[in-house]
Here is the input.
Amino acid sequence: MSDVPSARRPAGELESEVLAALWSARQPMTPQDVQTALGGDLARTTIATILARLHDKGTVERTRAGRAYAYTPTVQDTAGLAARRMHTELGREADRSTVLARFVSDLSAEDEQLLRDLLGDGDGSGGHGNGHSHGHSTVAGTRTGGTGSAGRPGSAGAP
Here is the structure.
């Protein structure tokens, strides 16, 4: 064993750096383009591997650019990336209602109000016109039951 500390980066850090380069470019980039944008410290093969993993996750799309691929992000920013991760986790469970109920039951009061406002259930404004209307007020209702107090998991679907 060596006493030299590992130079490995935390999980996800390289993916984040690659995505940041793609977001700032605003045009498709090849692995070599990304390598240049990141300062050239990483091997092109490392960047190609990261891009392939991001493609497998659906975070980037790729098109042929000669013998290589050029990559474009499918999410616009870190908030979009977090939302995609949340959708992915939700999609892994058959009982979506329980997953959403448990998620909502753990929200802070501020986050609950923000969610209610976004869903159009907080002040009667009807939301922000995001085009989604399937069951959202029911999801928000599982949290409080309309009383303003924190609901408990398992209350989904209660009258």
